[in-house]
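During the first year of the project, the team set up a workflow for recording each protein of interest as an amino acid sequence followed immediately by a discrete structure-token representation. This format lets reviewers and collaborators read both layers of information side by side without switching files. As required by the reporting guidelines, we include two representative entries from the current panel. The first entry is reproduced here exactly as it appears in our internal archive.
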Amino acid sequence: MTSTDLEAALADAEDAFQRKPEQPEVGLEYVTDPAVLQLRKACRLLDAASFLLARNGHYTVIIESSFVAIERSIQFYVEEKGYDVAGQRHTEVYDLGVRAGLFSRGVADRLEALWIENRSESYYRTGVAGEYRARTLHDLAVQLHDETVQLTRTQDCLCE
């Protein structure tokens, strides 16, 4: 690809990420605690997925958002417990959840298998997202998020 328009759009995107946001996302704008930032990102992802579910569509986006919300919720919990999550890959967060006492090895293995077998299938390969898959994964993400909030007794959750 050598399109001038593509290169200009790429340059604009690169520049955008070098600047401080002029209109930061509400709820994230003043957060300095990295754990709380992960928690609130999970809140926003779950909210967006709920919005799309209510409109009966975009199931691929709902599935992706739900998987990422699960990761962010786990990251919040393990960071609250003092574990370093910098540079971890997607599936490593489940091991951290076990070490931090959030869930058992069996649950971690099932979460990891769910991610490996289904997230990439729905997102990258031939799998087609559907309402039931999106709804049940979203329900799982909400349940895990709610439990991490309850376990930590945080007041920083933005979910309603």
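The second entry, processed by the same pipeline in the following quarter, appears below.
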Amino acid sequence: MRPLLPAKLLLPLAAIAALAACQTKTPAPKVNGGALPTMERVALAANSCWFKSGDPAFKAYRLAPELNSFSGRPRILVVHRNSPESRPLLVVQAEGNPAKLDAFGPMMGEAVGARIATDVNRWAGGGKGC
């Protein structure tokens, strides 16, 4: 019976495998969990995924970010597209470090509410995509 690989190739292959096993894995960078960085991530993703993408669930609305908050609670608002001064239909805000998120408003009681919660939690945790 013939060996599959010649003996002179087995030693270099074994050495390469041993070196590869000793390599340290670089840990994934940790996401900044403060309120402002968290809400910045959420605002950018919400704008891209909900509004700029033309998502029909958000077509009648617009995003109103209020990230520069003196109260320590940066937030984003979702308001009617044609009357941005009216009462917000959705408020997503964060406070503290690590950030404690809160989402409330009439949209949370609608069919889209579960999707909003899922999206916001994913983006707050550093997840990407829509």
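For the second entry, the following points were noted during internal review. Residues 35-52 form the longest helix (18 residues). The mean pLDDT is 85. Both points are flagged for discussion at the upcoming steering committee meeting.
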